[in-house]
Design a protein that fits this description.
Layout lengths: L1 H16 L11 E2 L47 E7 L9 E3 L2 E5 L4 E5 L5 E6 L24 E3 L4 E8 L4 E7 L6 E6 L10 E2 L5 E3 L2 E8 L10 E6 L7 E3 L16 E2 L5 E5 L15 E5 L5 E6 L3 H7 L9 E3 L3 E4 L5 E6 L5 E2 L4 E4 L8 E3 L2 E4 L6 E5 L5 E6 L9 E3 L2 E6 L4 E5 L6 E6 L10 E3 L2 E5 L3 E6 L2
Parallel strand pairs: 19-23
Antiparallel strand pairs: 1-28, 2-35, 3-4, 4-5, 5-6, 7-8, 8-9, 9-10, 11-13, 12-13, 13-14, 14-15, 16-17, 17-18, 18-19, 20-21, 21-22, 22-24, 25-26, 26-27, 27-28, 29-30, 30-31, 31-32, 33-34, 34-35
């Protein structure tokens, strides 16, 4: 009874601190919290956008996925818009200077005003149809990686795949008009452009926009994981890093590279060509890169080679930052790792590892808690002062999307059912849900004022939360 009372007191105290949290709903299976339970904390110091803006994947360079300006959610969420566009939306929408900017797999970019009336549409070319490629699961393949807005240049950067002679082009757009300021090929020698896929979100640091590449679903053809850095003005000085493997090591997860407080990139390579008995080739690895694309640190599980052989291990989740001390990530085979920022630990150098769940997509972070997009239901996992992991709750197994946080809710999709849920951050229980339509398995919302903006396979759904 004393333990139960302590848990109740912790949850009750938390509920008083969460704007907009209320009882009701069902769906989550609460696990007894440890010393503290997750709340809705302020965005990290990495946030550089204006109030109520969402200029990149999960809002800030560290991809915490937190809106500190979203009003407290109240009542049942309701869908207020269902915008039909010219292609599927895999990338996260952006919010820039009051405009919602959306990219499609038809190589188009749209902007909508505050009432979601179309302001402009820019066609960047013709996407690549499935018959041009040996494998893959997106047809046609156009703009997949989430674009990024950079305030210092006033431009939105987006990479489009074009068909015919399959190629990838980086565009700098004026967010107010959609006009193309410049474009630049970002296919570098040494691989087949048609076998490379640009699925990960773009990042900006060190005066460059960073573009991660992996493979098509199926890992076919001549590809190699790569992160390419292009000067923000599109000029000379392009740099890149690829793992020193014969083939593979795709840097493909949709969250893309995470930017640390010191401006370094944390990218995650997936399975490569190094098998048991081979030399370490920096695949199945967290890679820390500086602004010249130089590798400065890394981490790999001690069974990296076995993971390569089984196409499991890392690669499917971006790195989550807990303050400036810890980094957390899972992958395709169950273990979730805690690493030390600034000293990733090399091979087998994790601070903690626990077999928690398979993780695919981008996480959200509030305080000392990371919300993981597990394939059998989102989990809230706390990292204590010693770097140890504690599972706080486990949501329903159908709620598997990449979560974001705002208005006292964790907003996350049941992508198989096309339903957006607002979860209680303290318990994981659904406090409201609304149908938004079919979405890809990695779909993650953007937050704007009282609205949750969701990319779907037919366009965009907008859900109002209060």
């Amino acid at each position: 009874m004393r333990a139960k009372a302590a848990i109740l007191a912790t949850s009750t105290g938390l509920a008083l601190t969460l704007a907009g949290c209320s009882s009701g709903g069902g769906g989550g299976s609460a696990v007894a919290p440890p010393a503290s339970a997750p709340g809705v904390a302020s965005a990290s110091p990495g946030a550089s956008s204006g109030a109520a803006e969402w200029p990149m994947y999960h809002g800030t360079p560290d991809h915490a996925g937190v809106s500190t300006t979203m009003p407290a959610a109240s009542g049942a969420p309701r869908r207020i818009q269902n915008l039909k566009l010219d292609g599927a939306v895999y990338a996260s929408p952006l919010v820039v200077n009051g405009l919602t900017i959306v990219a499609t797999e038809n190589d188009s970019v749209y902007a909508f005003d505050g009432s979601y009336a179309q302001v402009w549409k820019r066609s960047l070319g013709t996407p690549s149809p499935a018959e041009e490629r040996q494998c893959g699961n997106i047809n046609p393949l156009g703009i997949t990686g989430t674009p990024i807005y950079e305030a210092s240049t006033g431009k939105v950067y987006v990479v489009a795949e074009h068909g015919g002679a399959v190629r990838h082009e980086l565009y700098a757009l004026d967010p107010a008009t959609g006009e193309v300021a410049w474009s630049k090929s970002v296919d570098l020698p040494g691989v087949s452009a048609r076998d490379m896929q640009q699925r990960g979100a773009l990042a900006v640091t060190g005066g460059k926009v960073w573009i991660p590449y992996g493979a098509q679903a199926g890992d076919c053809g001549d590809y190699k994981g790569r992160v390419v850095g292009v000067p923000l003005d599109g000029g000379d000085g392009v740099v890149y890093y690829s793992p020193p493997t014969k083939r593979g090591g795709g840097i493909w997860n949709p969250a893309g590279p995470t930017v640390t407080a010191d401006g370094h990139l944390l990218a995650v390579s997936a399975n490569g060509a190094g098998f048991p008995g081979d030399n370490y080739d920096h695949t199945n690895t967290v890679l820390e890169l500086d602004s010249s694309a130089k590798l400065v640190d890394s981490f790999a599980p001690s069974d990296w080679a076995e993971n390569n052989q089984g196409d499991v291990g890392l690669g499917s989740q971006g790195v989550a930052l807990i303050g400036t001390k810890w980094a957390v990530l899972g992958g395709k085979s169950g273990p979730v790792y805690v690493l030390r920022q600034g000293d990733l630990g090399g091979i087998g150098g994790q601070v903690d590892v626990q077999d928690i769940c398979l993780v695919f997509g981008g996480s959200a972070v509030s305080g000392d808690t990371v919300f993981l997009p597990c394939t059998d239901g989102v989990r809230a996992v706390r990292v204590d002062d010693a770097g140890k992991l504690h599972v706080v709750w486990h949501a329903d197994d159908s709620i598997t999307g990449s979560p974001v946080i705002g208005g006292g809710r964790v907003w996350v999709l049941d992508t198989s059912g096309g339903v957006l849920h607002g979860l209680d951050p303290a318990t994981g229980k659904s406090l409201g849900e609304v149908e938004v339509g079919d979405a890809n398995r990695f779909s993650t919302p953007a937050l704007k004022g009282t609205d949750v903006i969701v990319g779907t396979l037919t366009g965009v759904a907008v859900v109002r939360t209060s």
